[in-house]
Every structure is written in C-alpha cells, then in structure tokens.
Amino acid sequence: MFGAVRLVFLAFILAVLANSKKISRHEARKIPDHLLFGAATASYQIEGTWNEDGKSENIWDRVSHREPCVVDNCDTGDLADDSYHQYKRDVEMMRELGLDFYRFSLSWTRILPTSFPDQINEKGVQYYNNLINEMLKYNIQPMVTLYHWDLPQKLQDLGGWTNPHIVDWFTDYSRVVFQLFGDRVKYWWGLYANPIFSEFGDYPAVMKDRIAAKSKKQGFPRSRLPQFTPEEIDLIKGSSDFIGLNHYTTNIVYRNESVYGYYSSPSFYDDIEVISYQDSSWESAASNWLKSVPWGFYKLLTKIREDYNNPPVFITENGFSTRGGLIDDDRVKYYRTYIDAMLDAIEDGSDIRVYAAWSLMDNFEWMRGYSERFGLYEVDYESPDRTRTPRKSAYVYKEMLRTRTLDYHYEPDMSLGMNVDDN
Ligand SMILES: *[C@@H]1O[C@H](CO)[C@@H](O)[C@H](O)[C@H]1NC(C)=O
Fold this sequence. Notes:
- Helices cover 36% and strands 12% of the residues.
- It has 423 residues and is α/β, with parallel strands linked by helices.
- The protein folds into three domains: 144 residues, no CATH class; 54 residues, no CATH class; 133 residues, TIM Barrel.
- The strands form four sheets. It has a seven-stranded parallel β-sheet with strand order 5-4-3-2-10-9-6. Strands 1-13 form a two-stranded antiparallel ribbon.
- One of its GO terms (molecular function) is beta-glucosidase activity.
C-alpha cells in the first residue's frame, strides 16, 4: 500500500461517485470457479536484509534512515518481516490459506546493485529463485510486481521517474528479470490506465485541456502535462493484457466556488479542481484515509467495465488496517463486504479474474512504519525471527477459498490452529 497508489485510484473515483447502492447480504454466496484468490506483499515492506548479500541502497532505505527520522516511531525496513530468510514460512502460510497465487515484488537493487544490467547479483537472484521454486512446488502461482516503490537511490539522484532515460533503465531492468524468471512466472504487472485502456490511447481530454489552460495562465511556455506522440499512442493503446487495480476506499468529491484558491498552485490537487472528503459515518480503519465503502468498489468496477469495454481486471490489492490483535472482526467484515461487492460486479458482467488480499502478513507500511497493520497474519516485531500468527481474518479467508463460498455467518474455531490441507 502506498500514497501514490491512492492518488491513482482517487483519480478513478472522482468520476464515479453519486449515490450508494445497497449490497445484498446473501446467506452463503457461491464464488465463480474461474476467480483466483491470493495475497500480496512488496519487497521493501517485508524482505529486510537491506545492505547485505550484494544489495545496494534504494529510496526507502534512504528515507527510513533519515535523521531526524521521518517515519512513525523511526521504524525502518532494515529487517522488516525478515522474509529474505523466512520465505519458507511465507510459502507455508500461503499453503495454510490455500492461495491460488501470491503477488510479491522484486527489489531492483537486490538484483542489479549498480541499477544497470552490467552486474547481476547472484545472491539476490537466488533468493527470488528459492521463493518462486518453493511456491511452484505447492502449485502456488507467482505473480510478480516489477516495481513497488523501491527505486534505486542512484537513479533517484539522476531524477528518478522524471528523467526520460528511466524508460531505458526500466526496460533494461525488466528484460533482465523476464530472462531470469520468465520461464516460471506467468503474471507480471506494471502501471497505467486511460492511455492503455481507453479507445483513444491518451489521457482524458478534460485532463489535457485543463492542465494546458492552467499552465498557460500560470506562465509556463507549454503544458505541464507531457504530450504523447501519435507513435507513442499507437504503442501503448491496448498494450496490456489486463487492468491491475489496487483499491481500498472511496472519497466523495464536490466542486463549487470554494475550490478556487483552496490548494496551492500549481499542484495535482489544484489541477483536479475538486474538494474531496469521506463521510464521517463510514467505518474507519487504523489508517485515517481508509474508510470501508464497499459500494464505492462496486461503482468503480462498473465504471471500468463501461468505460474501458470490459477489460480483464486483476484486483491486485484490497485490505483493511488495524492496530494489531488476532481478533480482527472489522477486517473480516471489510473483506466480506468488499468481496460481496466484487461478486455483484461479476454478476453484472465484469470480467474480474484475480483477487489479492493486502496483505499476507503485517509489514512496513511506508511512512506509518509498523503502526498500521494490514496482515491476515500478525507479525511479532519483538521476536527475532518475526513470528507470524494467523488472525481471525486468515481463518475466514481460508474457509472462503476452501468452500468457494462467501458466508457471513461462518465463525472459525481458532483453537484448532491453522493447518495445511492436503487437498
Ligand atoms: C460548497 O459545497 C460544500 C459542500 O456541499 C458546502 O459545504 C459549502 O458551503 C459550499 N461553498 C460555497 C461557497 O458554496
């Protein structure tokens, strides 16, 4: 989970909101056979081993080591969940849950310590090979995120994503990892919606026009939004096999005179020209931005189906934060109501194929450190081996996958413990 992701789907949601739809509570709802269930994590948030075995510094190593510290409680991902060493336990948890797939990300600087393909770090490659092979042994599909926010610091020093050379750097890196892992990894994912999925292969007209007009007024010689060339539009339009969607919450937006001068300018928010808020009656997670609004999820899925000609959709993240504790009834309720909303969209015809819960286990939640917990498994950050224990939500998720049924009335008996089912 990360702020930038929230901005991306906020942009979706801005257009989506109006009135709420009542989500029906079925006794026990059948889940379509084709839908794959999994859980997700990301390299910096779980791996640890930040400066050993050949790995070099990335932007999150840099920011989490800043003094005075900027992350809550001065937490860092130096050890995180120690997944670099605990990957077998991670795969065991996937087996306990009965996951079809596991979505994880690759650490660019663990594989390419210079950022470039002149040097490939064997130990880093070995780690991902071990993880992938351990998963495949138990028929769990690896789904790989190429980039989950941990840019090499060296590339950041060169401007990072604002340097046009990043296209070549990222392509080089991607080629290396496709070559290293592509024989076994069938699912890969990267970013971006409208230019890829809309019939025009470009940013929405309103976005281009508005930013161009504002840029002119603000005294810029050209629009702050770079333009795609016709060749680029040709290249990216329809270039993805599916749309990957991280979704957590909903915002209501309004726009009247009060919006003018409300934000500093130029800025992303000033460009969108709306004020957004969340209803105070919505149930809140530990993260203050995260309110449970399942009907917002339904409306977003509907909009994707209608605006983008019903592309295959992978829900790559969805989840709820708490402050910890094994009895997480609020997370259980969140998962049930959001999955219910997703099933409504599927019934309406949405081509949703994959659902990944965020997250398999608690992890380093960026600027919030370990204070906000998203895991199906609780991680004990006092223990040296970062002991993982299933929460109530893990039992409920497991039962849902086992029975292929969403049942609001199922109550797990947690005293039985969590085992791997042979079938
Ligand atoms: C703008 O809309 C908001 C929300 O409906 C309202 O609270 C506010 O008073 C309005 N402001 C103006 C200047 O109309």
